[in-house]
Design goal:
ten-stranded mixed sheet, binds S-adenosyl-L-homocysteine, DNA polymerase, domain 1, 355 residues, two-stranded parallel sheet
Length: 355
């Protein structure tokens, strides 16, 4: 039987130390591996020049650093963004996006293949959920985008496919690897995890304090309208969500960041600002407005004038806001447009279809 090689990306320093010991090496060999893989971003054992030659041969036999192959090369886009469709080892596929100078070197990555939450405006929702990504697959997206775009990333946003807090443990494990200063070394303040607002997971986040910022997808100011867009609002209505967020702001001592898609005559009215001001009482907040990107939902994006007007009302109400530039529209790589039309690698499709 063929030996299944162990994938090293995704392992912590301690796990690599144990791995080295299991193979008759001293623990510090595991730390050397850690530094080669994460700090120096090397993907072949040949390049790990301070490891003994015999150990490198053994490593090659039993393990691999880990790679994601691309199913098709990204299209050229005018704004420089690139959308990658990556093949996972079980034949499923996932998308990640590189967004240069936005303002930093940014990767928008996925946390699940598909998504279970069914938000009406979001393309990924149409796929349904296939599975959670592993910590390794989450970290690999970052390292692959870096390698393929020949850059050092400064920012990572979990705004690709999936609901990150629905895959809490793997996302938090990945965050710890992404921010270890002896490893990949990203700054926790430049990583944003976006959530529909899974209240129990936000509570857990407050206890664990993972190294990243959280952003809440709000998108409407009444329960009725929010539930129309986001079924999750039935489980955690606004009253419950904001009660938790009030505590969240207090615990983190940071303003709460909200994402808010601008939908014509639906959530861009003056009364929405009044509602917001009520919800945000005693919650320092920052509103990130997003243009509605087309996904065939039948909803209409707010006009530029309506967005300007809305921003004016927010400012008058003392609510900080910015309009997020829409990047990646050309290659359907913008927020909410990630949808794998080919969710499987053809050679492995049958196994998945049966499952
Ligand atoms: N599940 C997470 C993260 C994924 S999406 C979440 O919902 O927050 C990242 C952001 O893109 C979210 O705020 C999401 O609501 C938004 N988005 C989804 N579909 C969109 C669309 N069609 N146009 C603009 N933004 C969209």
């Amino acid at each position: 039987m063929l030996l299944k090689k162990k994938i090293l990306i995704g392992l912590t320093r301690e796990e690599l130390e144990s791995f080295a010991r299991e193979h008759g090496q001293q623990a510090f060999r595991g730390r050397q591996l850690y530094s080669w893989i994460y700090q120096r971003r090397v993907s072949s054992f040949d390049e790990m020049t301070d490891l003994p030659a015999a150990w490198r041969v053994e490593l090659d036999r039993v393990s691999e650093v880990g790679r994601l192959e691309v199913a098709r090369p990204p299209h050229e886009t005018r704004d420089g963004s690139q959308k990658f469709l990556f093949d996972l080892s079980d034949g499923l596929r996932v998308e990640s996006v590189y967004l240069p100078e936005s303002p930093g070197e940014t990767a928008c990555i996925s946390s699940q293949v598909g998504c279970a939450l069914g938000c009406h405006f979001c393309a990924t929702a149409k796929m349904g959920l296939f599975r959670n990504l592993t910590g390794s697959e989450i970290v690999l997206q970052v390292l692959e985008v870096e390698r393929r775009c020949q850059t050092r990333l400064t920012n990572v946003v979990f705004m690709g496919m999936g609901e990150p807090l629905h895959n809490y443990e793997n996302v938090v494990a990945a965050l710890r690897l992404l921010t270890d200063e002896n490893g990949i070394g990203l700054s926790a303040r430049r990583i944003t995890v976006s959530t529909v607002g899974l209240v129990p997971a936000i509570e857990r986040w407050m206890d664990d304090n993972p190294p990243a910022k959280l952003a809440i997808s709000l998108h409407a100011t009444t329960d009725e309208r929010r539930a129309e867009l986001m079924p999750i609002n039935k489980a955690y209505p606004l009253e419950v969500l904001f009660k938790t967020l009030r505590r969240f702001a207090h615990v983190t001592r940071d303003p709460v960041t909200f994402e808010y898609i601008m939908i014509a005559d639906f959530n861009d009215r003056e009364e929405d600002v009044e509602n917001l001001a009520r919800w945000l009482k005693n919650i320092p907040a920052k509103m990130n407005l997003i243009r509605l990107h087309p996904t065939g939902s039948g909803l209409k994006p707010s006009s530029d004038e309506a967005i300007d007007r809305f921003m004016g009302w927010l400012t008058e109400a003392g609510i900080r806001c910015t309009l997020r530039e829409s990047r990646g529209l050309e290659d359907e790589a913008a927020c909410g447009m990630l949808f794998t039309q080919e969710p499987f690698k053809p050679s492995k499709a049958r196994a998945w279809e049966k499952a």
